[in-house]
């Protein structure tokens, strides 16, 4: 049985970011994915826009601001060829939105100026999602087209499918959390679609209104533009469509009628919203990708150690009545960690979160409580009923 220092399950932006920081400490790393390449899930269907979060001060806004500053430095330094900084114009979608924006002005974390029908942020950027994930995970051993059906703790090791051993295991599986048998670890699948088009229209900067519109890049005598993304939280069972978390390589398979109807409707919706920003002429849709973003119930990410709820309840039964127990006293799963729940801001958050998690695992750096799994366990435990 082959043994690794670190195994990462999930090769999207979260998993690839982890591999980037872990390889500074070890060469014995394995990155696993059920798909045939990196960024073949939600990360590949992301517009990968990098822009500030607008709003009044709160925990999530503070996190996004710190992560954006951190990630931009790395993208500019190590991934300049896949990074484009042309600024972003944020356009209020209606008068109510405009009034909200005015109330946010005293709380802006980045410079901006009035521009066209909105406000221009110099910091606004975009990255090439696939290329970024590819380079982040460069020189890391990979195992693709591999289904992880079982993970099991034996002594100090995690065993995957009775075939591979890991001293430490990282789960970055996005919306598919079937490997985590804990009710408090609550992830919602938010399906999105991104389209790439060619157009005779030249776009000089990035825009965001009800969708995001990228600066155009010359290609084949026209202008290459990315538009994203749609948002679906399906309430019905979608296992008979391509919107199925268990499917592999969903953007390379033949979609059935039900799936195609949603894809075609989403394409029309994106083009309509993009044309509300800039009139696009001579449009040719050249690529469509769908993927499921992972969103936690409070929108903050889910990072770090997992609490063993069963053993924690056995040790502290009064937790169920709302009694607070210090995080360090809870019973934890050893040597297994998560980096998940980054939602639609994966390319902003993941590098920052991965860096923090790696430093936590290797150098005992303390993680902020508001990004850890402890917060959701605590809320869930207080409401738990036998």
UniProtKB/TrEMBL annotation:
Q: Where is the FAD dependent oxidoreductase domain?
A: 5-355
Query: Which Gene Ontology terms cover its molecular function?
Result: oxidoreductase activity
Key words, A-Z: Oxidoreductase
Entry keyword annotation includes Oxidoreductase = yes
Listed transmembrane segments: none
Return the GO cellular component terms, semicolon-separated: cytoplasm
Gene3D superfamilies found in the cross-reference section? D-Amino Acid Oxidase, subunit A, domain 2, FAD/NAD(P)-binding domain
Highest taxon in the source lineage? Bacteria
Kindly give the Pfam families that the UniProt entry links to this protein: DAO (PF01266)
Identification of the protein by name: D-amino-acid oxidase
């Amino acid at each position: 049985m082959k043994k690794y220092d670190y195994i990462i399950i999930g090769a999207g932006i979260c998993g690839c970011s982890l591999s980037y920081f872990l390889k500074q400490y070890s060469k014995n790393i394995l990155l696993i994915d059920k798909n045939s390449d990196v960024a073949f899930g939600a990360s590949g269907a992301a517009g990968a826009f990098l822009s500030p979060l607008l709003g009044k001060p709160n925990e999530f806004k503070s996190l996004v601001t710190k992560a954006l500053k951190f990630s931009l430095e790395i993208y500019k330094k190590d991934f300049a060829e896949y990074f484009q900084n042309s600024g972003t114009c944020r356009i209020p979608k209606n008068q109510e939105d405009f009034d909200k924006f005015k109330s946010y002005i005293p709380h802006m974390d980045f410079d901006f100026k009035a521009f066209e029908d909105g406000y221009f942020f110099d910091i606004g950027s975009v990255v090439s999602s696939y290329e970024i994930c590819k380079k982040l995970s460069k020189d890391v051993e990979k195992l693709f087209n591999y289904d992880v059906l079982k993970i099991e703790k034996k002594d100090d090791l995690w065993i995957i499918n009775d075939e591979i051993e890991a001293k430490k295991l990282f789960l970055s599986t996005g919306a598919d959390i079937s490997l985590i048998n804990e009710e408090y670890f609550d992830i919602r699948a938010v399906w999105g679609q991104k389209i790439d088009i060619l157009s005779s229209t030249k776009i000089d900067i990035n825009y965001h209104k009800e969708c995001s519109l990228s600066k155009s890049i010359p290609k084949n005598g026209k202008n290459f533009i990315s538009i994203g993304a749609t948002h679906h939280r399906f309430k019905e069972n979608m296992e008979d469509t391509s919107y199925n978390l268990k499917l592999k390589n969903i953007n390379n398979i033949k979609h059935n009628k039900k799936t195609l109807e949603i894809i075609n409707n989403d394409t029309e919706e994106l083009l309509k919203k993009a044309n509300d920003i800039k009139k696009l002429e001579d449009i040719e849709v050249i690529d469509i990708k769908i993927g499921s973003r992972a969103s936690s119930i409070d929108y903050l990410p889910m990072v770090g150690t997992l609490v063993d709820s069963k053993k924690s309840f056995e040790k502290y039964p009064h937790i169920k009545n709302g009694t607070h127990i210090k995080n360090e006293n809870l019973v934890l799963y050893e040597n297994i960690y998560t980096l998940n729940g980054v939602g639609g801001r994966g390319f902003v958050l993941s590098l920052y979160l991965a860096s923090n998690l790696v430093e936590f695992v290797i150098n005992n750096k303390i993680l902020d409580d508001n990004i850890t799994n402890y917060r959701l366990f605590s809320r869930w435990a207080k409401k738990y009923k036998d």
